[in-house]
Structure formats: structure tokens, C-alpha cells
Amino acid sequence: MQTPDPWGGLKIGVATYTLRSLPLDAALKAMRRLDVRWASIKDVHLARKTTAQERRDIVARFRAAGIEPLSVGNVGLPVDEAGIRDAFVYAKEVGVSTMVCAPRPEAMPILDAMVKEFDIRLAIHNHGPEDKYFPTPQSAYAAARRYDKRIGLCIDVGHTARAGVDPAKAIRDLRDRVYDIHLKDISDTTPKGSPIELGRGALDLPGILASLRSIRYEGLVGIEYEKDGDDPVPGLSESIGYLRGICRPR
Questions:
Q1: Is residue 134 one of the residues assigned to a domain?
Q2: Does the pTM exceed 0.85?
Q3: Residue 175 pLDDT > 80, yes or no?
Q4: Is 185 a member of any domain?
């Protein structure tokens, strides 16, 4: 008998920034124990200063643990072409289709050329009120829409809400360029809202997931649990359990 999909068709996984305090082996062990199937790899677990073979070897370790890497990031991008090219080579050699990034607006023409050359999607990450370039998904979309369709968005639902924007509505409104999601909960939706276990905070997570299903979203929904950086596994476990509960078929 086929095991029912616990996520209702979504690829709910983990952004490994969540496990940034853990070395790779411990992070993989934790994700495997929590039955995580998809991931976005942060450079703490696959450094930029690695060879192509080292990158392949680390991805093989993810897959041996039953985890498929779908994106890398968040990747800080410089403005110069050589630095941007280095980031694209990294993503290409890791073998993912999407790079979550934090570019400068003036780099957009270079990024446009690179997505065409490497055939990799860029997902611009919005960082909330403190981000002077891309505080909201709408600001990232406005910068991306002039360029190749492979330049799109990583909607961070917590930072979106802290910037005064409804994440579920942003997902629906900007659906044609949503390529990655950072899923989290926050204590409140003011600019000072802080990370908290999923289900304990102020975000309408069932509504956000419903919006993703409504647009037939196929990318990663990466849990980014930023609280308890030195001991993230208990809170991540609670968060995954909460999501399983609200996604369970009725």
C-alpha cells in the first residue's frame, strides 16, 4: 500500500540554516530522524570554497540520508561579474535548479545574463523592514519583472508579515515568479516580531499553505526555524509536528 502524502502535495523540507550550529553529519542525522525529504543547503553545510568533487560528495551524503537538495542559499551576491559567476558555478555544481539570493539592484543586468547562461532560477529573498533593497516580495518582484522569467522570489513569510504584507496574498498575487519559500512563525506581525516555533505565533500558517496549494506551487517550502540556534532540533521537531497536524488529510 502506498504511504499517504503527509504534506498534501507540497514539498515541505528544511532550510539548513535552521541547523547552522550543527556539523553536516549531525544535521543530516537530525533531518533523517525527523523524516525530512527536501532541503535548501546553506553554505555552513556546503562551503563556497569547495571543489566540484567535494560539492558532489556532499550532495551524495544528503541523498544517502534520503534528502533531496532543491536549492542553495541564502547566497550573498556581489555586484561584480566575476563574483556573481562564482556563485552560479557553485549552484550549478551542487546540482540544484534554484539559488536563493540577496542581490544588489544594480547587479540585475548581470544576473539576467547569468540565468540565461546557466539556466538556474534566482529566488530573491526579502528580509523585512531592515532590508533597504527588498523588504517585501513586491519590491523584489518589481525589480525582477523586467528581466528573464528565471529571476523570481523566495518569499520569507515572517519577514513579509513584519513588513506589513499578508504572506498568503503575496503568494497568490506574485505566483508566476515564486520559486522558493522560507516558512516560519513569528511572535507578532510588528517589525519587532521574533522567531518562534511554528504554530505558537501570529502567522496564519494554514492560510499560507492553502495559498501555495491554490497556485499549484512545486518548489521547496523550507522551514527556517531561527530560534534556539544552539539547540534547534527540539523546536524544529515541534514545528514539523505542527505542520503534519494541519496538513493531515481529513
A1: yes
A2: yes
A3: yes
A4: yes
